[in-house]
């Protein structure tokens, strides 16, 4: 799969809620903050099952109720539509259960 074109980036990335471009690589990142650890880990579990189904996996780190996520397509060495799809799925699963970071 090829990386997102400049026009795709201009169109798609602003539509992703709360995601930012990573400075030193072609990737996007976001911090999710939940009510508590159980909520965070439950969300991670749902995402993990979706990621496995998609065969597209996040780079993430969990501390208590926060989860820092970075998305990039390793095989394409940059951002692809798979990253966009996984970001949108993560936001769907987090809807209504996150605290303002
Ligand atoms: C062998 C396996 O299908 C590949 O390594 C998949 C797994 N998950 C992946 N996840 C991400 N983020 N990028 C990939 O290129 C990728 N490739």
From TrEMBL:
Pfam families per record: Pterin_4a
Keyword Nucleotide-binding: no
Domain of life: Bacteria
Molecular functions (GO terms): 4-alpha-hydroxytetrahydrobiopterin dehydratase activity
EC main group: lyase
Catalysed reaction equations from the record: (4aS,6R)-4a-hydroxy-L-erythro-5,6,7,8-tetrahydrobiopterin = (6R)-L-erythro-6,7-dihydrobiopterin + H2O
Stretches that traverse the bilayer: none
A GO BP annotation: tetrahydrobiopterin biosynthetic process
Keywords: Lyase
InterPro entries: PCD_sf, Pterin_deHydtase
Enzyme Commission designation: 4.2.1.96
HAMAP family: Pterin_4_alpha (MF_00434)
UniProt family annotation: Belongs to the pterin-4-alpha-carbinolamine dehydratase family.
NCBIfam families linked to this entry: PRK00823.1-3, PRK00823.1-5
Protein name: Putative pterin-4-alpha-carbinolamine dehydratase
């Amino acid at each position: 799969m090829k990386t997102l074109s400049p026009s795709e980036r201009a169109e798609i990335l602003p539509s992703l809620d709360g995601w930012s471009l990573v400075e030193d690589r072609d990737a996007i990142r976001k911090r999710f903050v939940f009510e508590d650890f159980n909520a965070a880990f439950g969300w991670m579990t749902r995402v993990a099952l979706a990621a496995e189904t998609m065969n597209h996996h996040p780079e993430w780190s969990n501390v208590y109720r926060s989860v820092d996520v970075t998305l990039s397509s390793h095989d394409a060495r940059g951002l692809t539509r798979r990253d966009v799809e996984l970001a949108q799925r993560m936001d769907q699963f987090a809807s209504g259960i996150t605290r303002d970071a």
